Amino acid sequence: MPRPGLASIRVRTTLAAAAAAAVCFGAGALWLRHELYANRFEASVEQGTGDVRRLATAHATRDENGLREFAHERWIAFNADRTVRASAGLEPYLGDLRWLPGPEPSAERPGPVTMPLGGSPATFVAVTVFLDPHGRIVEALTGPVAEPSRVTYFLQVSPAEAKAAIRAVDPVLAAAQPAATMLVAAVAWFVAGRALRPVEAVRAELAAITSADLHRRVPVPATGDELERLAVTTNATLDRLDDAIARQRRFAGDAAHELRSPLATLRNTVEVARASGPAAELPAVLDVVLASTRRLQSLTDDLLLLARLESSGARPQDRVDLAEIAQEQVAERRHGTGRVTFTATVTGPAVVRGDQGQLERLVHNLLDNANRHARTTVTVTTGPDSGDVVLTVTDDGDGIAEADRERIFERFTRLDEARTRDSGGAGLGLAIVRDIAVRHGGRVEAGAGPGARFTLKLPAA
């Protein structure tokens, strides 16, 4: 088995699968990183929401231990008149943060606030508390009391923990993505190889078939898919090719055999005349030469017609009256001096689509065959039948044995009783009839009548 190149289906399938896997795994890795970061940062926000509440409580109660816990955090607080306090880390940005929006006093869980901080976005969690004149936090406003002081606290949520989580999974993703892509490529390579193995077997067998061993056939895989149908179709094509070449070889051998007889007659006649010498023999010699030449010409014409029928393309589409052709040819034979009487009967319209000349030749051959074998009468009937046009030629001869009714349409076939060359043709007349009928979408069959009966059926126009 040859090594697959870059243009092979197996390589292209593997590359396509690997590329698709790389894209999917890459997109999945990005989605996983995003979701991991978002979830971890959301957890930090949740934690910050509780921390900012404790920060507000520590300021209100002046809890030094509590404030010391937020020594390294970044926070800012301002009251109703925008008096600001901030951690050391945020003092350079007070101009930007002074107008941070405060959460509504009725909000139970104020959401995070995001704003630019030194050119990059920063997220804060906020809480608003109310202090009484003694600095204590008022949990609820009830009754007519002096308006307490309102203070809003913002605590920056650090993304460090979310980034740390990302850094922890990045090496795993970096190693897993190419490994998974290579695994998919390996599986695709294996599966494509298994799937294409029957194709390679078909290709190898076809490459090994020559004109000397057309009996060989490609293996048919029992897969029940397109590959099995391809192998079946290939074998059917080989069957037709084998049959065509076999017929061509038989045809060539039979043609050579048929040509050899008149050529041998010509040669012998000329040699005898040359050896005998007297000019008085010349008319008889010329008669034999002329008869042999006519036989050669007839055989050559039949061979050329068969070759044209095999190489012809689309079916002819001219409107042809088959009954008219039959009547004209029967009328021509009535005026002859032959021993056989011809009659023609038309039972209805008999118009078909085809080639006028070929259909005339078809009827001519059927009548010639009937004339050769009839004793006294040949009857021709033409008419419509269930969407077809039917032409029947019946003679009162000895008839055709049932075993020979299909064989007589083969080329160069003459039944034993009719194999004398001076009484018949070369055995191509009925073969021409069948080829013309098939080319016109019809069929011709031999059956039993008083003698022999030939029935031609063609689609009506």
For this entry, give a set of tags.
461 residues, alpha+beta, Helix Hairpins, Heat Shock Protein 90, 3 domains, five-stranded mixed beta sheet, 9 helices, 12 strands, 51% helix, HATPase_C_sf, transmembrane, transferase, Sig_transdc_His_kin-like_C, histidine kinase
Give an overview of the whole structure.
One of its GO terms (cellular component) is plasma membrane. Residues 254-461 form the Histidine kinase domain. Its EC number is 2.7.13.3. This is histidine kinase. It catalyses: ATP + protein L-histidine = ADP + protein N-phospho-L-histidine. With 461 residues, this protein is an alpha+beta fold. It has three domains: 1-208, no CATH class; 215-229 and 237-311, Helix Hairpins (Orthogonal Bundle); 315-459, Heat Shock Protein 90 (2-Layer Sandwich), CATH 3.30.565.10. The chain is 51% helix and 17% strand. The protein has nine helices and twelve strands. It has helices at 9-61, 64-69, 94-97, 160-208, 226-276, 282-311, 322-334, 356-373, 429-439, and strands at residues 75-79, 84-86, 113-117, 120-131, 149-157, 318-321, 341-346, 351-354, 377-385, 388-395, 443-448, 452-459. The strands form three sheets. It has a five-stranded antiparallel β-sheet. It has a five-stranded mixed β-sheet with strand order 7-9-10-12-11, covered by helices on one side. A hairpin with a 4-residue loop joins strand 1 (75-79) and strand 2. The chain is rod-shaped and about 160 Å long. The protein starts with 8 loop residues before the first helix and ends with a strand. Mean pLDDT is 81; it is low at 104-109, 141-145 and 417-423.
